[in-house]
Structures are given as C-alpha cells and as structure tokens.
C-alpha cells in the first residue's frame, strides 16, 4: 500500500502554480494486471475552491491509456458531488 500527498497544479508544467493536493492511498489490487484501488481526496488550497474537496474511488489499471475514476462525494463547493473524472499520463 502506498500513501500519497502530491501537489495539484493549474497545468502539466512543473512550474505551474499549485492549487491543491491529491491526498489518499492505493493498495495493489489485481493478480492478472498492474492495477490499484485508488482512494483519493482532491483538496483545493487556493483560488475560488480553497477549502473544498471531492473524493475519488476507482480501480486504476496502469497500462490503460485513459482511466475513468468515480467521484463519490465532496465538501465545501463540492458537497454531494457525483460523477466521474478522466485520468491520463502526460510524459
């Protein structure tokens, strides 16, 4: 299991201003492929969403080019949030 507390930035450039943190954990979850169960809070620390967060819970298969992640709740401006997010890797 791995714990995360990573910066969230406005863009993919490493010099982009920080707007929050990605905080959570992910245990490995598959025997047949490289995948984890991602439990993540997207916490905003700047801008109009400062102090708000939403919660993501999903299977994350590393070799899928695009992954769909379920949004299962939130607080502040995101209270009661539901839906999904799309994750892809920028190299």
UniProtKB/TrEMBL annotation:
InterPro entries on file:
Allene_oxi_cyc_Dirigent, Dirigent
Q: Which Pfam families match?
A: Dirigent
Which of UniProt's keywords are assigned here? Answer: Apoplast, Secreted
The protein's superkingdom reads Eukaryota
User: Its GO biological process terms?
Assistant: phenylpropanoid biosynthetic process
Q: What is its main location?
A: secreted
GO cellular component, alphabetical, reads: apoplast
Q: Where's it found, cell-wise?
A: Secreted, Extracellular space, Apoplast
Subunit composition and interactions:
Homodimer.
Q: What does this protein do?
A: Dirigent proteins impart stereoselectivity on the phenoxy radical-coupling reaction, yielding optically active lignans from two molecules of coniferyl alcohol in the biosynthesis of lignans, flavonolignans, and alkaloids and thus plays a central role in plant secondary metabolism.
Could you tell me which PANTHER family the record lists for this protein?
NUCLEOPORIN-RELATED
Family in the record: Belongs to the plant dirigent protein family.
Name of this chain's protein: Dirigent protein
Q: Which organism is it from?
A: Miscanthus lutarioriparius
């Amino acid at each position: 299991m791995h714990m995360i507390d990573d910066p969230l930035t406005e863009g993919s450039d490493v010099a982009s201003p920080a707007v929050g943190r990605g905080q959570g954990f992910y245990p490995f979850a598959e025997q047949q492929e490289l995948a984890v169960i991602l439990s993540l809070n997207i916490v905003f620390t700047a801008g109009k969403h400062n102090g708000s967060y939403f919660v993501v819970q999903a299977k994350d298969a590393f070799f899928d080019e695009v992954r769909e992640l379920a949004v299962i709740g939130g607080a502040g401006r995101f209270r009661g949030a539901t839906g999904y997010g799309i994750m892809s890797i920028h190299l």
